[in-house]
Design goal:
Blueprint (H helix, E strand, L loop, with lengths): L1 E5 L10 H15 L3 E7 L5 H13 L6 E2 L3 E6 L2 E6 L5 H12 L3 E5 L6 H6 L6 E6 L16 H7 L4 E4 L2 H11 L4 E2 L21 E5 L7 H10 L4 E5 L6 H8 L4 E3 L7 H4 L2 E6 L9 H8 L4 E4 L4 H4 L6 E2 L7 E5 L5 E3 L7 H10 L3 H20 L4 H11 L17 H14 L23 E5 L7 H4 L2 H4 L4 E4 L17 H12 L7 E6 L1 H15 L8 E4 L18 H10 L5 H4 L2 H19 L13 E6 L7 H5 L9 E6 L5 H4 L1 H18 L1
Helix pairs in contact: 10-13, 18-19
Amino acid sequence: MKVLLAHNSTYFPSLGGGDKSNRLLMEALVERGHSVRVATRVEQFGQEGHDAMLEALRSRGVDPDGSDGTGIRYELGGVVVRVLSLSPHLRGFFQAQIDEFQPDIIITSTDDPGQLLFDIAVKAPNARVVYLVRATIAVPFGPDSSMVSASKTEVLKRADATVGVSHYVAGYVREWSGIDAIHVPISLLEDTRDFPLLGRFENPYVAMVNPCAVKGISIFVELADRMPHVQFAAIPTWGTQIDELAAMRQRPNITLLNQMDNIDGLLRQTKVMLVPSVWAEARSRIVLEAMSRGIPVVASDVGGLHEAKLGVPYLIRVNPIVKYKPSVDASMVPVAEVPPQDVAPWYKVMERLTTDQPHWEELAAASRKAALEYAANLNVLPFEGVLESLLRKPKKQPPAPTLRPALSEEKKKLLALRLRQHNTAAKPDSNPWLPGIEEVPAGRMKLFCFPWAGGGALPYRAWRDKLSALACVVPVRLPGRETRAAEPPFERMGPLVEALLKEVRPFLDAPFSFFGHSMGAGISFELTRALRREGLPLPVSLHVSGARAPQYRLNHVPPPEPSMRDFIEELRRLEGFPPSVLNNPELLKLALPALLSDARLYRHYAYEAQGPLDLPLFAYGGEADPNVTAEHLAAWGLQTTQTFRHSEFKGGHFFLEAAQAALLSTLKADLTLASQVR
C-alpha cells in the first residue's frame, strides 16, 4: 500500500503524544513493507521557522536530503517526510503531495480540527480516507467538543473509516455523531523489549508533562503549595502559557525541565507521575510510558484515562470542563472555562504515595506488570488490517447534490426551536406563562399542564384536540425555555410557586384541574397547597405523573451538584428521554440551560408536612421507570382525603410519549370521575 499521512502539526521532533504516536504508527507500517509519506509543517512559517527545523533535525542526526520552494525533505524510520516551512499555503502543498504520490490510503486526524486537509483528502478520486480521532475536543460534535458544528460533522461522515484511540473515543464518536467508529491500537510504543525499570521511591520528583489549563495545572500547582516538602517537576510543551510558566516559577518546589525526545530522561527522575486532566483525555500516552517503567500514575477519571490505567489505582474524580470560550490561546488551543477543583482527594493519595514506601512499591510493581502485559500485544497488525479491508471496498462517494436538500427530523426540530426562541417579538404569546389561556371560552373546564425538567408548553398542545370534549388544555410555559429562553429560569420551588400563584389567580373562576409530569408533578402539588393556604378555589382534581410521592422528600438534604458528564448520563438512563435531543449536540446545547436549572430546583425541593388535600388525586407512572416504582406512586394516596388511584403504563420515565394513547384514555376517565365526585 501507498499511505499518505496528513499531519497538520509538527511530525518530528514531537511536541505532543499524538505526534509521537503518529510517527511510530507510520514507521510500523513501513516495517510491514508499505510505502509511507508524511505531509507536515513547521510551527512558524518563514525562513526563521525553516532554519529552526533544519537545526532541530540535524541536532538529532537527521540529514535532510533536499529542499524546494516550499520546505524540507527528509527520511526517518523509512518514512519519507515532506515539511512545509517556507510557504503558508498548506492546502496547495497537501494537494501537491497527493498528486505526486498517488496514495492508496490517506490518513487524517484530529490534529486538523478545521478540516483543511481532510476536505482535500476526501476529494482525491481513488484514495480511501481514514480519520484518526485522538482528541474529542477537536471533533465538531458532542459535549467534549470546543466548537460544535453540524456541517463539519456531516463532512466527516465522508471518511471511509474512522478510528478512535480508545474505546471511550470510538464510543463517543458513535454516540454523538452517528459515525460508525471503531477502536484499534494506534498509539504504539517503542521496542518494549528494552523498557528499563526506572521507578525508584528515592526519585526526587512528582512530575507532570504539559502543565496547562486543560491538563489540570490548577491541581498540580495547588498540590505543590500544600506539599512544600515534596519536589515537583514539569515539562512545559504545547499547551503551557506564559502566565502558567510564571505561576510555576514562583513555587520554590517546582522545577521546570526542558522538552526531551526520550521520555526516559524525565522518568528516571520521577517518583509519581501526575495526569490531572480536566478535559476528556482520549487516552494519554504518558500514562502507559510511565507505568511501563515502574512508576505509579495518579490520573483523573475522565475520558479514556481509565483504559490507559489498565485497572491499576489511582483514578480520581475531577470537575471536568464543559464549556469553551469562542477564542484560542497563543498555542491555538480553545480557551476553556475551567471549573473549581477539589484537591483534597489528590492530596490524600499523594501524601500516602510520597511517604508509604511499601505501598509505593506495590503500586509500582502492579503498574509495570500491567503495562508490559498490555504492550506485549500492542502492534500495528489490527490497523493494517483496517487499511487493507478498505482497499477491498469501493471508496465512499459524496452524497449527490440536490437543489433543496431534505432536513432530518432532528434538524427540523432544531430549526423550529431556534425560530421559536428568536422570533418571539414577531409572534408573542398574549400570556407568556399560560399560552392560549385567553382562547378558553368562559365557564369551560381547564386542564393546566405543568412541564418536566427542561420541558415547555409545546408537547402538551398535541393533547388539545384529544381532550377537547372534557377540558381545554392550558400548557404552562416557565421562564428559560421556548419563547422565554432569554428569561432566567427559577432554581427554587418557593419563588416559582409564588410566581405561578400570581399568574393563575385571574383564571380560577371556572372549574380546573392540574396535570404535571416529573418536576411538573411537584410544582402542581405545591401550587395546589398554595391555593389552599390563600383560600382560593382548588382544582377539581390533581393528576401527577412520573414522580414519587412528596413525603419521600421529608427532611430532604440536597446532594452535591453532579458533574456535567454525570448529569447527561442520568438523562440517558431515563428511558424515553428524547434521543433527538441527547444525540444532537446543538439541540442539547439549547436544552441544557433549562435542564440544569430545573434539576437544581428539584434537587433543592424539600417537602414540608401538611394535611392531605380534599380533592381526587390520580398518579401515573411508567412500568420501566428506574426511579419511580409502583410503591412510590401508591404513596401519593396519603396526600388526599378523597378518591385516589394510580395507573402504570408501558415505557420508562417518559412513558407519556410512548404510551400517549393509553395515558390520555385513562386521563379522560379520571377527569370524568373527578367531575362526578365534585
